[in-house]
Amino acid sequence: MTPHTALADDALADNALADDSAVPVFKLYGETRPWPTPDLLHCESIPERSQLHNWHIRPHRHADLFHILHVASGSVTLELEGTAHTANGPLVIVVPAMTIHGFRFAEDIQGHIITLARPLAERFVHVLERQAKVLERADYLRLEGDNTAQRVMQLVDHIAEEYRHPATGRTSLLESLVLALLVMLSRLGHDAPSARSHGLRADSKGREHLARFQALIEAQYRQQPSIETLASELSLTSAHLNTLCRRLANRSALQMLHERLLLEAKRQLTYTNMTVSQVSDSLGFSEPAYFTRFFKRLTGHSPRAFRLGQEESAH
User: Fold this and answer.
1) Which superkingdom heads the taxonomic lineage of this protein's source (predicted)?
2) Is 137 strand, coil or helix?
3) Which of 14, 42, 79, 172 is the most buried (most CB within 10 A)?
4) CA distances from 87 to 7, 144, 313 (A)
5) pLDDT of 101-121, one tens digit each?
6) What are phi and psi of 136, to 5 degrees?
7) Alpha helices in the chain (DSSP H)
8) How confident is the model at residue 200 (pLDDT cuts 50, 70, 90)?
């Protein structure tokens, strides 16, 4: 395949994207499989997964994942909310949760994609405040000037290296490196050529409701509130909330709450010495047996078997 330089024949500009329900909801970059790790961050090279999809990631969206793509070199045709752009590296592409996006890469593409789970992205927003606005806007930033391009590449390469080779303090170092990357991108966003002038589609009311629901889950999941209670806090009926979740996130409101509980359970079983009983109690289960049944139903493994598997894979 040769690098794309024209958009006329590109299937990325599909008018069907106007209907949110027609757009696939992916769990990870180009995949429908579940989030593969208890980490809140995932990093891999762009060629690593793109070549499995013939260099074409079709338009899709994520309910609770944020992408930062660093294109070190090569050409990419990208779609952000129905608007197509062709650009050459070096550049950075930012894709917030719920943004419809797709990519067609040239086969000589080089770079990495960093994916943040919503809890981590929201933590960065809290820490960085206004500088984290870069995570909330679908955008691409050209890295103009050798010094700027080099500094961004060094940060991304450091993140990728640390991600691939876990060591003591890995989580803290990875989060610090991503924070530094976000600060740099925020600075670039003030004056770098970007996608903002193309008028990306504003969030619909449904997306706003979903974002508020996800924020409530993050604040209250350990108490395991009922969906009726959460819907009431949003001034919605539980039926309306479920309809929104199924249309925009491809799962029910209860499934979204359970996925957050499961993610935290995996993290505690992987990164702490808490007993299964302690993990169960911390997540609001009345009995460890209920927690074990919940965990096994969603993963196919008991909490103890999952922990042993994580320990074995770390060696």
Assistant:
1) Bacteria
2) coil
3) 79
4) 11, 13, 39
5) 899 999 999 999 999 988 888
6) -100, 0
7) 46-50, 118-128, 146-164, 170-189, 205-220, 227-233, 238-249, 253-271, 276-282, 288-299, 303-313
8) very low
**Tokens representing 271?**
């990164």
List, in order, residues 6 or more apart from 50 with CB less than 8 Å away. Answer: 30, 56, 57, 103, 105, 109
> Predicted confidence band at 39 (pLDDT cuts at 50, 70, 90)?
confident
Does the pLDDT value for residue 238 go beyond 70?
yes
Cα–Cα dist 72/90, whole Å: 5
Average pLDDT over residues 55-79: 90
Q: Are 229 and 191 in contact (CB under 8 A)?
A: no
| Total number of domains constituting the chain | 2
Residue 2, domain member (yes or no): no
Region of poorest pLDDT, from 5-14, 185-194, 262-271, 272-281? 5-14
Q: Which of 143, 175, 196 is the last residue of a domain?
A: 196
Q: Higher confidence at residue 32 or residue 147?
A: 147
Cα-to-chain-centroid distance, residue 184: 20
Per the domain annotation, does 1 fall within a domain?
A: no
Number of DSSP helices (H) and strands (E) in the chain, helices first: 11, 9
Q: For the packed helices 118-128 and 205-220, what is the interaxial angle rounded to 10 degrees? A: 90
Q: 3-state DSSP call for residue 272? A: coil
Q: Is the pLDDT of residue 29 over 90?
A: no
Sheet holding 56-60, edge to edge: 56-60, 101-105, 75-80, 83-88
Report if residue 4 sits inside a domain.
Answer: no
Among the three residues 196, 221, 256, which one is the final residue of a domain in this structure?
Answer: 196
Q: What pTM did the predictor assign?
A: 0.71
Task: List, in order, residues 6 or more apart from 165 with CB less than 8 Å away.
Answer: none
Please report, to the nearest 10 degrees, the dihedral formed by the alpha carbons of residues 143, 155, 64, 87 taken in order.
Answer: 20
